[in-house]
Amino acid sequence: MSTHRVWVYGDNVNTDVIFPGKYTYTLKAKEEIASKALEDLDPTFAASVLPGDVIIAGRNWGNGSSREQAVTALKFCGVRAIIAESFGGIYLRNCINQGILPIVCAGVREVIRTGETVEIDIEQAEVRAAGQIFTFPRLSPSVQAIYDAGGLVPMLAARFQTT
Amino acid sequence: MTTQPTAYTFAEKALARAAGVSSLRAGDIVDVTPDLIFSHDNSAAIRRTFLEIGASRIARPDRIAITLDHAVPAPTTEHAQNHAEIRAWVQEQGIAHFFEVGRGICHQVISEEALILPGETIFGSDSHTPHFGWLGAFGAGVGRTEMAALWATGTLWWRVPETMRITLDGALRPGVTAKDIALRIIGDRGVEGGDYRAVEFAGNTLSSLSLDERPVLPNMMAEFGAMSAYMPPDQTVFDYLDMRREQRGGHDTNGRHEWRPYSAIYPDADAIYADEYQLDVSRLEPQIALPHSPANVVPLSQAVGQPVQQAFLGTCTNGRYEDLEAAARVLKGRHVRIRFVINPASSQVMLKAAQTGVLATLIEAGAAINTPGCGPCMGNHMGIPAPDEQTISSGNRNFKGRMGTASAGIYLASPYVVAASALTGCITDPAEFLV
């Protein structure tokens, strides 16, 4: 189990406000990509996010573009999990492949505010917030294996090293 | 006792074929081997991830297309360097299908080159890959890391989606287009209406849509949150592909024979759908999406008169020949009042428009013609709005900041509406210019 400070956002937050398209082909350094995270949603985020922080959102977090920086910008800020009622489909795949845990869980947003903390228990598949317990569905075994390896790149890298 | 249903959706059948298994059901997770994979200006970043994986040679270079389209010609040194890296990589790896600056937008070019065929599966590192449903293919967008994994192994993990059926019946009124249908669907059900399902289009409207109009529907399903979208291919599509393969000569850029046999796939009549949506399009009027969501859709009449400072015609959604022709019908003999930026979706679109006089009509009317490609759609260049300006666009996405300026607004509508609004400087019903 781990404790995390949270940033709370709403429904239908799209990839373009998480990471603007105009930066997608020019920014390469992790620090640069991290510095643009949520630029058009919450300009205070990139400057004050801390490693270990968690995003809490409503429905359809990360809808829109396939751009992976909408996940990696948060990853490079130190975000390790995103708790949302639902995710944009490609965004959810990008999370798994980047080793960020997408937790599909309703209700947390209603009981918590930015700056407060939640506890995440991956083994029990539970989020604890404001004295309440919220359960979330476990990943299927083959998808869990990608997450456990740290993402798709480390998983494949292990495979390519042994062949 | 219940009997096991034996009816399958298109997605279940197409993914079973791509996974090399006899049957699949929604919810199954399998390794899929797509028939074609493609990327664009993001190929340089994909290469870096590919090398991080520890791979050295691309698994199936004959089944890869790369199109330079998102920022072309290069607007900055960084973009130029990005393109240079991609060109060198294409040479080094012997990537079969490479399309240079100016050839056009990935989805349009791959369609024109008949590189993907009915019943096949195509993954692209671009969210509008559902586009290829217009050819009866299973198309889905993937992330850059997934594309790197596809380069390295030729396969990718995939969850078979549930399917939503969208049935369209009736004939569109003049001046009403497939774009208006797509906007109405997204307006009715929202940007998460597709719920990362596959969409199957059905109904008697489909066969009445021209080949240039058909891609609009599956393309826009990206804005609906769908994983993929499919239209049942008919003889018009088969004839188009034959003609295109004939024109291409049937060889890839390495001179290899590239004519694959194909077999169209259709859903079973009693397949089970997770959701249904029906629309009688005969009563539909032109639609428009207001800033800042493609689901913020109202009938055009409710937005008429709103001032706009820029009009933009282009994109994978509405940058084809008939879209330019529609604008030319509105503009013929008139002159625009605001700047009107046009990016044809491909060089072939632009060439045809030049040959038929459509391009001359647009230029005479005061339009600024850009290089074929994505243009200002995602805010790289070629028409970035000033702060607080409003753009009327034939594109697909009007998220805040999409065209590069966070305080600028984007309206989405059909090419007719874009052209009519360019004439007046405010959102305008094209009907008065189409008589």
Chart the SSEs and their pairings.
The complex is a heterodimer of chains A (163) and B (435).
Chain A: E1 2-8, H1 15-18, H2 30-35, H3 45-48, E2 54-57, H4 69-76, E3 81-84, H5 89-98, E4 101-104, H6 108-111, E5 117-121, E6 126-129, E7 132-135, H7 141-148, H8 152-162
Helix pairs in contact in A: 4-5
Chain B: H1 10-19, E1 29-32, E2 36-39, H2 43-53, E3 64-67, H3 77-93, E4 97-99, H4 106-112, E5 121-124, E6 138-141, H5 144-153, E7 156-159, E8 163-169, H6 178-189, E9 198-202, H7 216-220, E10 228-230, H8 235-248, E11 275-280, E12 287-289, E13 297-299, E14 310-313, H9 315-318, H10 321-331, E15 339-342, H11 347-356, H12 358-364, E16 368-369, E17 390-393, E18 409-412, H13 415-424
Parallel strand pairs in B: 2-3, 2-5, 3-4, 5-6, 8-9, 8-11, 9-10, 14-15, 14-17, 15-16, 17-18
Antiparallel strand pairs in B: 1-7, 12-13
Helix pairs in contact in B: 2-5, 10-12, 10-13
Explain what this protein looks like in three dimensions.
The complex is a heterodimer of chains A (163) and B (435). With 163 residues, chain A is an alpha/beta fold. Chain A has a single domain, classed as Aconitase, domain 4 (Alpha-Beta Barrel). Chain A has eight helices and seven strands, in the order E-H-H-H-E-H-E-H-E-H-E-E-E-H-H. Chain A has helices at residues 15-18, 30-35, 45-48, 69-76, 89-98, 108-111, 141-148, 152-162, and strands at 2-8, 54-57, 81-84, 101-104, 117-121, 126-129, 132-135. In chain A, strands 4-3-2-1-5-6-7 form a seven-stranded mixed β-sheet. Chain B folds into three domains: 14-160, Aconitase, domain 3, CATH 3.30.499; 161-249 and 271-284, Aconitase, Domain 2, CATH 3.40.1060.10; 289-433, Aconitase, domain 3 (2-Layer Sandwich), CATH 3.30.499. Chain B has 13 helices and 18 strands. In chain B, the strands form five sheets. Chain B has a five-stranded parallel β-sheet with strand order 4-3-2-5-6, sandwiched between helices. In chain B, helix 10 packs across helix 12 (358-364) and helix 10 runs parallel beside helix 13 (415-424). The termini of chain B are far apart. Chains A and B meet through helix 1, helix 5, helix 7 and helix 8 of A and helix 2, helix 3 and helix 5 of B.
